[in-house]
Design a protein that fits this description.
alpha+beta; Ribosomal Protein L25, Chain P; Barwin-like endoglucanases; 2 domains; six-stranded mixed beta barrel; six-stranded mixed beta sheet; 17 strands
Length: 421
């Protein structure tokens, strides 16, 4: 992401204030409906196979307001070779770790747990370690570490495929926006050491730096002349959930596929509409999966549009032409092994073992991504790839259990010998 200084804002973006409604958006118009000529993907959520998670070490949870894992403190977990890591899972994790461990050495670890040099030995070994001995690799180079009470919650995401078109045509009326020209990201750490690691996004209006347009304003035309429309979707509900996933595939009318990925976000807070709908009693028991929420939104288009707009966060896209989708490290994320985590509590690129109350979420994952809703200790979003199976699993993923980070040997001793102040 580009980092801009506030000094340059007025020069770069003067004259960009105001809202113009583009010709394809009319204020007060009824919500865009999915074309009945284009079938919806209504596969039900996959029902999980229950499992009994391993118990964490008894400890208090991370206190509210704790800024990083290092400040929360760490607890030694069980020996890695005692964890139920199967061969296929270890092979996937080893392949993913090979890809991201070089980045681990170059990045500043926002969690405060590790230094780049800590990962050098295991990263070098990973490049030639035989896949048949993948479980032994993790047992040899890592120790399990618990953050706080270790009680984990995991959701799921996937690469959706929805109906779309490169050009606007009947049945394809939902604009997919590229990154706006006037969207500015500011690194607050440039102005205060106390704000290191914090960024905000907004725009210049006159001489003021103000929040960027929210979802409602964007849907009513605020981006006309400010952002390219890179494609058109057929279903506003499917497009809303593709934004939540952050990347996806457009199934084109000619049978081709256009892949799109995250290019930016408007800086507004993410609000999970599923919780809003549950709190308001709108969802029947068993309807709180992605598939159930989609069904309700389609059945109640006016109320559904209003609820979706309560999530003011809005994601912008670019076309992907190489491998992908890309995670926060700039590497492709891979189904059944990549996960999103909060970098303040998990070193991005590090392995994590999740022992959960459903078998599909249990195993080794590699933290290669982040997410607007993935905040705090022991919070993860597991990636399941693309296709119908991925959609069915991710749409209903809600798992609880225990998380252990896998960190280089000696990390616990070093951190406990010199606690972070």
């Amino acid at each position: 992401m580009r980092v801009w200084g506030l000094i340059a804002l007025g020069v770069l973006l003067s004259g960009c204030a105001g809202t113009v409604v583009p010709p394809y958006v009319e204020r007060g118009a009824p919500p865009v409906q999915r074309s009945t000529d284009i079938p919806a993907n209504d596969l039900p959520a996959r029902q999980p196979t229950p499992a009994v998670p391993l118990a964490p070490v008894t400890a208090p949870p991370v206190a509210a307001g704790t800024a990083s894992a290092a400040k929360a403190g760490v607890i030694a977990g069980p020996p890695v070779d005692s964890l139920p890591i199967n061969q296929a899972n270890a092979e996937r994790a080893l392949t993913a770790y090979r890809l991201s461990c070089g980045t681990l050495q170059r990045r500043t670890d926002a969690s405060g747990l590790t230094r780049g040099s800590d990962w050098a030995e295991s990263c070098a070994a990973a490049q030639s370690w035989p896949a048949r001995d993948a479980p032994a690799f993790f047992a040899h180079y890592f120790e399990a570490v618990q953050i706080g009470d270790g009680k984990a919650f995991a959701t799921g995401y996937y690469e959706p495929e929805i109906a779309g078109s490169r050009e606007r045509r009947p049945g394809y009326e939902v604009p997919i926006y590229g990154k706006p020209d006037d969207l500015v990201e500011v690194d607050l750490g440039l102005f205060s050491d106390a704000l290191k690691g914090k960024r905000i996004r907004g725009r210049v209006e006159g001489q003021a730096f103000v929040p960027y347009y929210d979802r409602a304003a964007i849907e009513e035309g605020a981006l006309h002349g400010r952002a390219p429309v890179i494609a058109w979707a057929a279903d506003p509900v499917e497009m809303f959930f593709l934004q939540v996933q952050g990347s996806g595939r457009l199934r084109l009318p000619d049978g081709g596929v256009m892949r799109i990925g995250y290019a930016g976000q408007n800086g507004r807070d993410y609000t999970g509409i599923g919780k809003l709908m549950r709190d308001r009693g709108l969802l029947a028991p068993g309807q709180a999966s992605m598939q159930g929420i989609m069904g309700w939104l389609r059945d109640h288009p006016d109320e559904g549009r209003a609820i979706m707009r309560e999530n003011k966060s809005f994601v912008f896209f670019s076309e992907l032409r190489g491998a992908g989708p890309l995670g926060a490290l700039g590497h492709p994320v891979v189904g059944w092994v990549s996960a999103a985590a909060d970098p303040a509590f998990v070193p991005l690129g590090a392995p994590v073992f999740l022992s959960m109350d459903r078998t599909d979420a249990t195993g080794l994952w590699v933290a290669q991504d982040t997410g607007g809703a993935i905040k705090g200790a022991n919070r993860f979003d597991t990636f399941w790839g693309a296709g119908d199976d991925a959609r069915a699993i991710a749409g209903g993923m809600s798992a609880r259990g225990t998380a252990w980070l896998l960190l280089p040997l000696g990390t616990v001793d070093r951190l406990t010998a010199t606690p972070v102040q």
